[in-house]
Amino acid sequence: MNRLSTLPDWLAYIEGLHPNTIDMGLDRVRVVAQELGIGLRCPVVTVAGTNGKGSTCAMLEAMLRAARYRTGLYTSPHLIRFNERIRIDGAEVDDRALAGAFEFVEHARLRAGDVQLTYFEFTTLAALHLFSESASDCVILEVGLGGRLDAVNLVDADCAILTSVDLDHQAYLGDTREKIGWEKAHVFRASKPAIVSEPVPPQSVLDVAERIGAHLMRVGHDFGYAGDKQQWKFWFHPGAGAAQGADSAPVTRNGLSYPALRGANQLLNASAALAALETLRERIPVSMQAIREGLLAVEWPGRFQLIPGRPMVILDVAHNPHAAGVLAENLSNIGFAPYTRAVLGMLGDKDIAGVVKLLDGKVDFWHLASLPGPRGLSAAALAEILKGSGVKGEVSLHDNPSLAYLAALECAGEGDRILVFGSFLTVADVMHVLKAT
Fold first, then answer.
1. Which domains does the chain have, with CATH numbers?
2. Cα–Cα distance between 54 and 359 in angstroms, integer?
């Protein structure tokens, strides 16, 4: 460890600790967590789901911070810098503090018998250690993959949110919504609120909640929203999921500001965040003013993010059919453009055909980009999938997303729009170009 002095050194070391990027299971990471003696003494909200997790976490953080609470937020993956994954009181943890946390975890790992940890497991333990030491008022944890066997599920959340259930990561979670829902629902805890904002949850989700005795609260049944062009309202019927001792009368919050995050699905995410806050209001009450301020101030890059200028640039990390469907709807809602140029790079283990079919007819030119690494797909292979799917539009091939974006920019007219999507890697690469210009 003497040679591990910088954050890049530590990250490189952690990547090589385990032969596999993903190794589902809690036994190994639990042993090290016990050695660390992690203890979170504040309310914890765990957020699982196929899509919408990050936006929901960001809105929770923004509203709590507007109410002057000290928050801890753990999300993944990052776009530009690893530091994005761990935020305390709204600020990314700096390199020095991260390196110190990694060293703390490494000592515990060695004391526990040189336990092999994956990159995600190691960094999750570092985040939990930092939150344990930070005197936070509330900690928000985004599940990395699934739920039941994810390292985040070490923590018994005071409230769990399930945002959506759809096909993704089938090799690890199963090939049906029922199987995937079963995995994700295991972030629920007995006698604790389980907020489900998936409008049509698989029966497996409902069955898990009933079997373990969680207080299930479903969108459209126990909470929901309605809105017009100016504002929206949130309603909540506490029932068994309310905070202990809370007034059982229904709650309605009128005149709410639309979230600063764009997209047709963001009211759904905001409603889940508000439902979670209602279940915790005895411990961390949040005023209407703080809710309004938080919704107006929230930022979450890469989620239907519009970059001002001409041509318009849209960044979206959508990488599965469910997210692509939302993206297609959002594109339809932002008005007309003479041409839409898509910069697309995807990982080979994704349902690429399912994604591009949902954008068929909305993209005029496809600038396809190769992605690096063993999971990355070449632009040529991507072109073959588009051809086989019958997707319309002219196609060009590029060595990486940056070059694909620059090519799209050179060809685009002022009134056109450039859509960058398909992977966190794709969006991150283009973001580097945008920051440099």
1. 7-297 (3.40.1190.10), 305-436 (3.90.190.20)
2. 23
pTM of the model: 0.94
For 16-40, the pLDDT digits (tens) are 988 887 888 899 999 999 999 988 9
Given a cut of 80, is residue 246 above it in pLDDT?
Answer: no
Using 50, 70 and 90 to split pLDDT, how confident is the model at 264? confident
Instruction: Quote the longest CA-to-CA distance of the chain.
Output: 62
Residue 113, Ramachandran bin (φ over 0: left; ψ between -120 and 50: alpha; else beta): left
Residue 52 identity: G
**Residue 88, beta-bridge partner list:** 72, 91
DSSP 1: -
Q: Is residue 79 within 8 Å of residue 116, measured between CB atoms? A: no
Cβ 73 vs Cβ 87: under 8 Å: yes
One-letter amino acid identity for 223? Answer: F
Alpha-carbon distances, residue 342 vs 209, 314, 412 (angstroms): 41, 9, 11
Instruction: Return the axis-axis angle of helices 321-333 and 352-359, rounded to nearest 10°.
Output: 10
Task: Provide mean pLDDT across the span 170-191.
Answer: 93
Residues 290, 292, 296, 300, CA torsion sign: positive
CA distance 302 to 300: 7
CA 6 – CA 142 distance, rounded (Å): 26
Among residues 190, 125, 197, 196, the alpha carbon closest in space to that of 158 is found at 190
- pLDDT confidence of 230, banded at 50, 70, 90? confident
Q: Are 294 and 62 in contact (CB under 8 A)?
A: yes
Q: E-strand spans in 82-162?
A: 86-88, 91-92, 138-142, 159-162
| H/E run at residue 329 | helix 321-333
Average model confidence (pLDDT) across the chain = 93
Q: For residue 83, give Cα distances in angstroms to 67, 90, 134, 144, 186.
A: 24, 12, 16, 16, 28
Q: If you average pLDDT over residues 47-64, what whole number do you get?
A: 97
The neighbouring-strand residues paired with 377 are: none
pLDDT at residue number 169: 82
In a 10 Å sphere around its CB, with 0-12 CB exposed, 13-18 middle and 19+ buried, how is residue 51 labelled? buried
Closest alpha carbon to 269 in 338, 340, 204, 326: 326
Strands 193-196 and 86-88, sheet pairing: unpaired
Q: Which amino acid type is present at position 15?
A: E
Q: Kindly report, residue by residue over 88-121, the tens digit of the pLDDT.
A: 999 999 999 999 999 999 999 999 999 999 999 9
Backbone φ, ψ for residue 89 (5° rounding) = 55, 40
Name the β-bridge partners of 141.
46, 74
